[in-house]
DNA sequence: TGCAGACTGGGGGATCTGCCCCATGGTGCC
DNA sequence: GGCACCATGGGGCAGATCCCCCAGTCTGCA
């Protein structure tokens, strides 16, 4: 079983988090008897993908909110280039949409940044050997929270335009379609999300994590 | 100079960040020759204040986005109970409003979570001995970014209502004033923020950090 | 082959917004 | 006292919204 040390890549936009994770992974006896070798670190989604392509590591430790590319995108891209890499996501966000997206995309491990680290330390060895573990915190969310409505492509695009402050007319010009069509998409959105105005739509979208709030900040 | 080891309290809502910071502070030679003694950790603003009252540490290492109470509130409360405690804030948010609030509240150190840790490690000893250091990244923001306009009380209240999805009519009913007055406040807000619609207003407010996005999530 | 669903587009109308006009009080400041 | 500023409230109006109605095309699926 111990024919070699496992190796890993850490991706998080905060240097302090990377340092903490690196320490924990490398420390002999904490997770693995000999520690886990950290091959590289990445501060944004694109370089995370690049590092995975280069090193094809046993493990990719991933944050969801990163510049350039976020959780799910990085996950599927990493899988494309390195099928054997186990992908474990650490996140501070508990929005249902994000969590279910990650689980459906086939993430191997999902842990909350807020909760205690011990669960993460305990489960990681099993994940490296092929098991899968979704933190109880997220399992509860997936069970309890009603699945948010499925948005079509155009609806999602429209929603993002609305969230960045565009009016119907501007969106119509941007997409090269009629105002009435944009109006239709917006109306469908509001029906699905059970709101009755743009301000409510925005408030709801932010709370549900239907869009990526990181890129705004 | 080395009559005793410095001690500190760490406040951050993410256990991994706390672990990383604890490691760095305690490691002899990295920041202090003998390391810094971590007296306690806190996962939210209220317990952070409680721990400061109990231990009156030399240093409070603080995150801005925490449950129960955020950066500036914790800072001023900590000062009230322990005037000698040096308060150093680590943040991932670069919104001008937040940064200038912290600086004006008299924070002793301000560093970005995203940037390299070495600056933090290098400057902390000086801060413990009475110096003050605002990361260049934030200094640049303070200089370059025009100070966001000063909002009146009613304007700020109105803004928060708008951001939580209320219409003019709902806000008027909530405040017990006329729709026209709400309209007036909203119009003033939009003039000050140089936008021309509620969606733009929300997008701008989120980007500028004029309001607290943490309580939404 | 049909059929559901997404995307497209238009008509119409009640309502709300965005922004101009106006006026009345209160407060703080020189 | 005058002046600036805030908060209050009203009239009015062009334009945008919210939400009905309608219909065509195209794609994927049973």
Automatic annotation (TrEMBL), chains A, B:
Name of the molecule in the record: Response regulator UvrY
Keywords: DNA-binding, Phosphoprotein, Transcription, Transcription regulation
Domain Response regulatory: 7-128
PANTHER family reported in the protein's UniProt record: NITRATE_NITRITE RESPONSE REGULATOR PROTEIN NARP, TWO-COMPONENT RESPONSE REGULATOR
GO BP of this protein: phosphorelay signal transduction system; regulation of DNA-templated transcription
Positions carrying 4-aspartylphosphate: 63
Superkingdom field: Bacteria
Pfam families hit by this protein: GerE (PF00196), Response_reg (PF00072)
GO MF terms, alphabetically ordered: DNA binding
Organism: Roseibium album
Cross-referenced SUPFAM superfamilies: C-terminal effector domain of the bipartite response regulators, CheY-like
Domain HTH luxR-type: 144-209
Gene name per UniProt: uvrY
């Amino acid at each position: 079983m111990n024919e070699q040390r496992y190796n890993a890549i850490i991706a998080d936009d905060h240097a302090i988090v990377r340092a903490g994770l690196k320490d924990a992974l490398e420390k002999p006896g904490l997770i693995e008897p000999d520690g886990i070798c950290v091959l590289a670190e990445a501060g944004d989604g694109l370089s995370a993908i690049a590092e995975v392509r280069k090193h094809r590591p046993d493990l990719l430790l991933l944050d969801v909110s990163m510049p350039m590319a976020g959780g799910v995108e990085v996950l599927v891209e990493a899988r494309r280039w390195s099928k054997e890499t186990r992908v474990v996501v650490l996140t501070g966000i508990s929005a249902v949409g994000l969590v279910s997206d990650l689980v459906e995309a086939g993430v191997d491990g999902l842990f909350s940044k807020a909760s205690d680290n011990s669960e993460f330390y305990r489960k990681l060895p099993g994940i490296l050997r092929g098991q899968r573990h979704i933190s109880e915190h997220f399992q509860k969310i997936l069970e309890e929270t009603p699945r948010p409505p499925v948005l079509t492509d155009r609806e999602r695009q429209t929603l993002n335009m609305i969230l960045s402050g565009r009016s119907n007319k501007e969106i119509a010009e941007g997409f090269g379609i009629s105002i009435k069509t944009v109006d239709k998409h917006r109306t469908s959105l509001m029906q699905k999300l059970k709101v009755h105005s743009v301000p409510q739509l925005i408030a709801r979208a932010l709370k549900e994590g239907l869009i990526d709030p990181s890129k705004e900040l």
